[in-house]
User: Fold Uracil-DNA glycosylase from Polaribacter dokdonensis DSW-5.
Amino acid sequence: MQVKIAEPWKNILNQEFEKPYFKELANFVKKEYTTTTCYPKGADIFAAFDYCNLNNLKVVIIGQDPYHGPNQANGLCFSVKDEIAHPPSLINIFKEISTDLKVEYPKSGNLERWAKQGVLLLNATLTVRAHEAGSHQKKGWETFTDEVIQQISKEKEDIIFLLWGGFAKKKAKLIDKSKHHILESGHPSPLSANRGYWFGNKHFSKTNELLSSLGKEIIEW
Assistant:
């Protein structure tokens, strides 16, 4: 697997690519993509870093796994390509945005527009086998993405981390709370949202209020 990752992410992550675990991971991913159908397409594996410039980073959202259905995953957590039906979690994210910010429900589920404004949409695992959720977990991706979070925590200040659901909340221990901001809630999946753990969290208005207080441009969600 040829790692092509955008500057200046490369500067803080380059050493990871030389570590034994990453070389094993790269071999595993290369073999999987050669022998079976996997998502996202190879060119989009590191799309979260391509669309979000580290120098402009404001917000980090942490997902778990890429979508494993055809034409869904585009390398950004919770995001789908244009013209693709919105998956249940994304529907609930958009419903909350619509209520929280008093805006229309977005037509496109492609969140590249967020990434370009400084939102890192980071899945803990960056690849998956078609129709097999979690099939590339515990192969090394989590080690890499945990390092991404730690490097952001170390190198940056006043980043807003949105941790949705139990899995994402466990990443809080990687973040220096004295210099960053953490907002937590339930996961936007129907199971969690329908139990009252998602709707009304107002994470999108709260994020923008924080950004304004820091003198930064707000996100157009």
Summary: Residues 13 and 148 are 7 Å apart (CA to CA). The chain has one domain: 7-214. The longest strand covers residues 59-63. Strands lie at 38-39, 59-63, 119-123, 128-129, 160-164, 181-185.
